[in-house]
Amino acid sequence: MALAASRGAGAGLCPMPVLQLFLLFLPALAAGPAGMLQPRDSPSRERRELGGLWSFRADLSPGRDAGFAQRWYRRPLRQTGPVIDMPVPASFNDITQDPSLENYIGWVWYEKEVLLPLRWLQGDPAPRVVLRFGSAHYYSIVWVNGVQVVEHEGGHLPFEADISSVVQGSPGTLCRITVALNNTLTPHTLPPGSIQYMADKSRYPRNYFVQDTKFDFFNYAGIHRPVVLYTTPAAYIDDITVTTTSSNSVAMVQYQVSVVGSTDYSLSLSLCDQEGKVVATADGPVGELKVLNPNLWWPYLMHENPGYLYSLEVKMQAQVGEVLLEDVYTLPLGIRTVHVTGTQFLINGRPFYFHGVNKHEDADIRGKGLDWPLIVKDFNLLRWLGANSFRTSHYPYAEEIMDLCDAYGIVVIDESPGVGIKLPESFGNKSLQHHLAVMEELIRRDKNRPSVVMWSVANEPASELPPAAHYFKTLIAHTKALDPSRPVTFVTDANYALDHGAPYVDVICVNSYFSWYHDPGHLEVIPLQLTAQFDNWYKTYQKPIIQSEYGADSVPGLHSDPPMMFTEEYQQAMLREYHSVLDKKRKEYVIGELIWNFADFMTGQGTTRVLGNKKGIFTRQRQPKAAAFVLRDRYWKIANESSCLPPVITSHSFYL
């Protein structure tokens, strides 16, 4: 997206120095073990979601530091002062009628008291009890019964803590979970931001500051994804890594399993198809499974049975003292290959064309909070639209969303929260080290997903700056070392001749808004400018290209003929101008197009935004604008041209 400064104002001192101050004496704790397997029930594991109402309190003290100074985590939060009910998962910004909370910057506090089953606290050895957060934005510190158990930086990836020693050493079964959460962004966070002090006392209150960002979506904050308590045996399966290859009628599944808690263990693996039939078995922590006549994982509209998933059941038996423990974990597994040539993107050896969307985790009231009805509605709209893919703009999406991508065959470009990297200081070593760590977390979470076919390390960075060369060379090399099986890209809006990061990507992803941010209102310039864009990028780098963003704002119900900006007709006309060029270039080296955006979304307030960004082809409430029908007709036409399915499929065949 084009950039817009987002400002959240609050009275008081900047909270980030408070954050840095307290990190000086808070113990440094890791955000979790080497593995980050998604919690699943099994014969040896239990899980319990902690969604619902939590106690909530914003720290309104001048320095935002009263919660630490008074140690709110040492006693029930209601005893520290006034609390309100806050739903989890949800952003806190839009829940109340308090405008100061809408734009609050600093520390907020959450608390939940739960009773644990006695079976979780007893035994020899007792089970391992783990507290896991799907995500919390942005910086989190977590206590259980007054004991700090974990801290984590980053707002879009899971973190967890083994709390066994805390809860099993406490009297009774009460587990009080306290979370301090800070949404301040600095030049070294992902995404970056900065605090601006307004020192002119004739214009601003004392100690007034604003949070500035260089990205165009609202900086929602809160516990955005499910909080889960789950158990494993004392010795357990910690991580599983799979990669797949296939040729002719045989597929190979290479695997690696790590076990924690015992060195005296055995592993057995069974791969079952969707009918429950065992199709391959293996033993040991490293090896491969041979699958004859495999059902490959195909994208939606590329095969009559898209999103085919096997079940890989891993069983561990481990000796711990005199006790033999067993752990079972089942991993959904899709068999597919990805390959990039100079002009094509191949899935299972066949050319794949991305006809999809960019999205946001964004909705009325709950902000970025996970919402199952909304998720299911969005996937039904995607399939109605004929979209086969999306990019997780501009941060990793919830695991629950990714699960449905795997199951439905929706192809994903999995993007890190590296959006708004514009300042020179954001290309320094401190920022780079954090970005490397974020990519490790992202790949650790999503490495086994067949829907994820490419990593995107950033969106619209200032890649024309000289430090960007070392930054992206290092970042992309690190990403490829972590996962050699997938191509890597970042999304650029820089000049093709000045982009220092483009030499290192496998696929060029370029954003452009001709006749909108450039030559606004002049649709006639699109054919010339878009053609030149594609030709210049391909001539320079000889790599396939995705039009990763394009679009125009439209206010629902606003009409004009001839088309004028912000009308539904103008949005339609812009799309058609882009499509005429894309139809020519997709016969050469363009391998995809992703509309900006799937749905309208909230942004910071500004003179160019009226209740958010209106570039959606659907409204924020998921009602179609006229452009949705233009895109639907196009996507179904492309699908019929490239699909191996019978041509009787029409845009009216899939009402889901």
Automatic annotation (TrEMBL):
Major site of localization recorded for this protein: other
E.C. numbers: 3.2.1.31
Every Glycoside hydrolase family 2 immunoglobulin-like beta-sandwich domain range: 235-336
Pfam families: Glyco_hydro_2, Glyco_hydro_2_C, Glyco_hydro_2_N
Record-annotated Glycoside hydrolase family 2 catalytic domain positions: 338-639
Signal peptide segment: 1-30
Compartments it resides in: Lysosome
Reaction(s) the record says it catalyses: a beta-D-glucuronoside + H2O = D-glucuronate + an alcohol
Entry-linked InterPro entries: Beta-gal/glucu_dom_sf, Galactose-bd-like_sf, GH, Glyco_hydro_2, Glyco_hydro_2_AS, Glyco_hydro_2_cat, Glyco_hydro_2_CS, Glyco_hydro_2_N
Protein name (database record): Beta-glucuronidase
Gene field: Gusb
